[in-house]
Design goal:
3 strands, three-stranded parallel β-sheet, 20% strand, alpha/beta, 74 residues
Amino acid sequence: MQKTIFITGASSGFGKATAKLFQSKGWNVVATMRQPEKDTELMQLENLTLLPLDVTNLQQIKETAAKAIFFTRY
């Protein structure tokens, strides 16, 4: 079974670097950022799912967590 990692704050800095590192090692990556539609780099990578997440929005946290759990099962 392939390993999966969930990364918040993937739009820049350590979050983005971590997403790219784990993706390059063959992991399934679920990466989040407030505005994934603005991303031009991560969305091009295989085995990487990009989801919207503002950690101050409780409803979005619940929705994104549910989607992330779905992606780790299939």
